[in-house]
Amino acid sequence: MSDLIQASARDLSGPLIELTDVKTHFKTARGLVRAVDGVSFTLERGKSLGIVGESGSGKTVLSRSIMGLLPPKAAVRHGSIKFEGREILGLSRSQMRGIWGSEMAMIFQDPMTSLNPVMKIGRQIAEPLRIHLNMARSDAWATAERLLTDVRIPEAARRLNQYPHELSGGMRQRVMIAIALACGPTVLFADEPTTALDVTVQAQILDLLGEQRRDRNMSLILVTHDLGVVAGHTDEIAVMYGGKLVEKAPTRSLFANMKMPYTEALLQSIPKLTDPSHTRLSVINGRPPDLVNPPVGCRFAARCLYTQQRCREEEPPLVVTPEDPEHSYACWYPVGSPAYFEAKARIPSNSTVEVL
Amino acid sequence: MRYFLQRFSQFLIVFFLVTFGVMVLMRAGLNAPGDPARTMLGGTASQQQIDTITARYHLDSNILGQYWFWLKGMVWEGDFGYSVQQNLSVVDYMRPTILTTLFLGVYSLVWALIIAVPLAVYQAYKRDSFLDKSGNFFSFFFISVPALVFAPFIIYIFVTKLDWFPRIGEKIYPWDDLGAHFKNFFLPVVVLAVPLSAIFVRLLRADMVATLQSDFITLASAKGVPPGRTLWTHALRNSLFSLLTSVGVNLGGLVGGALIVEQYFNMKGMGFLLVSTILSKDLFVVQSLSAILVATVVLANLGIDLMYAVIDPRIRHARALS
Amino acid sequence: MSIDLEEPTATASEAPTTLVVTKKPFKMPRLGWIFGTIWLVTLSFCALFAGQLPFIREYSAKVKVNGRAKSYGWGPGWNAWFGTDKSSFDVFARCIYGARVTLLVGVGATALGLFLGGILGILGGYYRGRIDRVTSIFVDCLLALPPLLLALLLIYRLDDLEIQIWFWKVTRPWEITITLGILAIAPLARIVRAQTISLREREFVLAARSLGAKNGRIIFREVLPNVVPTMLTVAFTGLGILIAAEGALAFLGLGVESPQTWGKMINAGRDDLAKAWWATLFPCLFLLLSVVSFNLIGDQMARRFDIREAAI
What we know:
Helix content of chain B: over 70%
Structural class of chain C: mainly alpha
CATH topology of chain C: MetI-like fold
Distance between the termini of chain C: 28 Å
Number of helices of chain C: 9
Oligomer: heterotrimer
Number of strands of chain C: 4
Number of domains of chain B: 2
Mean pLDDT of chain B: 83
CATH superfamily of chain C: MetI-like
Radius of gyration of chain C: 24 Å
């Protein structure tokens, strides 16, 4: 199956993944849901990208759109998705199957429901090996054991013969990672890999992901609602809101010089250890926009603290910052601009932002 | 193990209660001494015959005593009793009917599963397609068709009009003439198997549809597992519970409850025999036959219970803990 | 899947992924249950007023051919819509009269089953423990023998015993009703028990209990109203099965003496299928349509109350 990819010209010099104006719409009874509405970006080989946004921002749909894992009957995709220079948006599921597991792999949010409850761990890890690499059963089993050791699961040999319900949540997520790593993919999608886990386990899993990425020279797309998660673990961050990319920058540049008020609000909603106790949690008021009938102007306008008339009428384009050509944002009055300070001055003092 | 013992003891209780209940029901109203024997022998029996039978089978003791002697005879001596009317041991009397029932039941169950499983899997896979919708329609329809109605239609079409099959089935064993054997059993098996497979399709399809929406199925796709393999190895095994339960529930009906089909196609199975002996009040045959039926149903359900554990390691785990 | 989709979709299907223009899912209007209701209402009406309606022959009127009664004298046609049977009675009229007993027995048996099964299920599910064990074993016992055999056994014996309670003599129709009612207990008790178990842990029941409500009050005010929809749904589906069982009993010679029932008509004509198919197949059709109608209505109720099929 993966011959399909090898046969076609593999462009190893260009970007690994290149998205141009990707739109994913769902046909529903209520109308067309524009879950992803015109997203473009590139991801270089070996780099890691964090996609951040609250629930309903389209980040999960985006990652599944790239992989082509959406239910084909309901989802309509437009635009172009190039993987190693080759257009993959038009491929059928059977063509994609050669890429899934071997070139692109995915880790799901809930390790409790993502492993087959009636199949031994070993078989679940060995399965992609046997399918993509045509390994013999014993070889696949040995590789599976090595993979389990790689993801720091003690007593790997014994675990192979266990069932998912015999492992803890953290262990299961490690098994998921082992499955994803099995065929040595070039890019790994991790969809909220730590959300369902204990706080103490979260950091371990993230460290493991980062470490495996470096060891295997793999690209990583980390989808999360938590800016704190991506902060230390990705090279770049893309912030999504209402199905659109609203800010994208190298991690350092983003935290040093964030432009989009939404990014700012997201950051402020993370509680800080240095806050005095009983500080009120900062929240973003309102709800994400209706993706069936999205608002005309900036999609964040209704919830933004610094909204001007123009925000409601015209949609801001994605522009590059003067300081850093890799940093782009979509806002008329970005954080730090005169209009921003002007608006901030007008905000009553008991507003949520005041907490900081 | 403790779980198994607990279930087993519960099944034993059911077995004893039902067999005892059948006995009480059959003997109700026969209170005078010698009555049971007289009933079995018929009105013309001499007092001497009645006394012999009464003494031999302890029919003069109270009902519990009679139950005890019958049970003891069956379990310890393998003596299922004696058909006074046919002058045969119950075992000999039953022998030809057991084979008929076995053929009917096994063929029907196997065919119902052979039809139902692939159909349900395919319907769940191609959900809401034309085939799925027509499958749903037909399974709904055939669930509603009673054998009483299904059989005459089938007979009218295939026997009266087309004349493809013999009207009255003679008992032909597969080792005598395989072709004739299958020809003989074909229609009755159709009448039994089609509604059964309709039930199976409906249950399995519903479970499969639910399973196909789980995360681990998406993961299987993301691993690059082809759809056939996803369906048969990942989804099916996680969707078998309702189907298994239903097999257990319907097994009893296949063994003893195929009365209508047996009647239409003139195949004397165990159900047929039981009915005729209830009518003629051949007490021992009724008791032993119903005991065998109850034991079959109860053991089948115990087997199904064990199957759950074979299929799902979580159930194994939970039971080991209890 | 964490994608918010309005409609559930299969995830493992094979189809090209791009630019699929999905047809709007074709919604079949649910005509089924309307058809079922119309059939049952019409049938009950005709059966009830069979004597008054002009197009239904009298029960004992023979349709003669050239002035003489002739077995299977008429095929389906204008003289006798569904033809005439062995004793030259009008098959159509008999089909209508046959509905009387069948529907009455079916409804009576279901009511009995609902009452007894409901009590057993609620008691077992609510109190659990020893009561639950006893009721469960009782229900298991009812399921241990194939239902048709159990029915035969009960009816034969009730026939022999000729029970008379004060001035109420248990006649054949009563025997059949009681027996079928007993058959209906087990499935009803099972599903009611399962529902009650899940209900008794729900917040509103816990709230009532914490307010000091007595068990009896909780059962009648909190549990029962929530179990009734399920019970009725199962009862409708069960009604279909019960009237089929009544037909089967009549077929096996355990029917009601008069009026003729569908099962008996099927039995009487089945050896002459080649000669006169109408005498057997029309009553079959009536039985089939009625069973299908009850199932259609039950199905609609299950949809309406969102009851999972597997539970039934």
